[in-house]
Amino acid sequence: MLGVEGDGALVRARGLSKRFGDFEAVKGIDLEVRPGEAFGFLGPNGAGKSSTMRMISCVSPRTGGELSVLGMDPGRDGPAIRARLGVVPQQDNLDSELTVRQNLQVYGRYFGMSKAHVRQKATELLEFAQLTERADAEVEPLSGGMKRRLTIARSLVNDPELLLLDEPTTGLDPQARHLLWDRLFRLKQQGTTLIVTTHYMDEAEQLCDRLVVMDGGRIAAEGSPGELISRYSTREVLELRFTPGTQGEAEPRVADLADRVEVLPDRLLLYTDDGESALKAAHDRGVAPVSSLVRRSTLEDVFLRLTGRSLVD
């Protein structure tokens, strides 16, 4: 395929770094994105996700290392790469003075498409984004979910080989998020390669075939959601809830019942492969929580183990 690295990667980075003055936002990361997959960047604020995406999208030059996108060098071939990318920024930047349909048609003209082709493409994308009934409406009154779907539809005008989505569902309600996930899943089924940054763990599990967890400008872990859970967590988590301030008394009595015990202000988290057995053993030892819950481990457990629970501004 034209524009694919010899090793099959659409995006390949080696020792990639980005510095802003004395601050190093991205600290020498290695990664590969393969054709047809959904690849995710997961991490707290300031982890370096957006800085990496901006380098891949050819709008921010790298400071050091190697970066290849679609078999080309962003520093030399930026315009040629951008012509084959679709980019969905964190904030919608639609033209509020144009209608929904006009936002698609005007954007398509930037890629040199004929008026007839742009009209046809806009009709297809309106249907894909479930916005056909709002085609001639103004943009401003649209809901947040509709604006987000329009922004994604606009990014597909040029039939991109690689679609970059920076925090695609931030601020959306659950229904709008699930509809957006459905649209992105359909794109992947059609062969579009997706790169997604997100801080929603369920989103990463839903969308991503592989992902990296970034923290402090570095890659802390890489793998599929299932691989990361298997590597950094246990099969199940037993949550024991207590009256706040009393959970510490129970910790030494259950410490040997799990691979790891985490103490929170109102509960204990016991990481174990058999939550029900651990719960029975805790009860047998006289531990009496206010409530208990056995659940499967999730990417959130992995994320918090790798990056910590402290708030990052």
UniProtKB/TrEMBL annotation:
Localization (cell): Cell membrane
Family that this chain belongs to: Belongs to the ABC transporter superfamily.
One Pfam family of this chain: ABC_tran
Lineage: Bacteria, Bacillati, Actinomycetota, Actinomycetes, Pseudonocardiales
InterPro entries hit by this protein: AAA+_ATPase, ABC_transporter-like_ATP-bd, ABC_transporter-like_CS, ABC_transporter_ATP-binding, P-loop_NTPase
Name of the protein this chain belongs to: ABC transporter
Record's keyword annotation contains Ribosomal protein: no
Domain of life: Bacteria
Main location: membrane
Keyword Transport recorded: yes
Residues of the ABC transporter domain: 11-241
Gene Ontology cellular component annotations, sorted alphabetically: plasma membrane
Keywords annotated in UniProt: Antibiotic resistance, ATP-binding, Cell membrane, Membrane, Nucleotide-binding, Translocase, Transport
Record's bilayer topology term: Peripheral membrane protein
GO BP term (any one): response to antibiotic
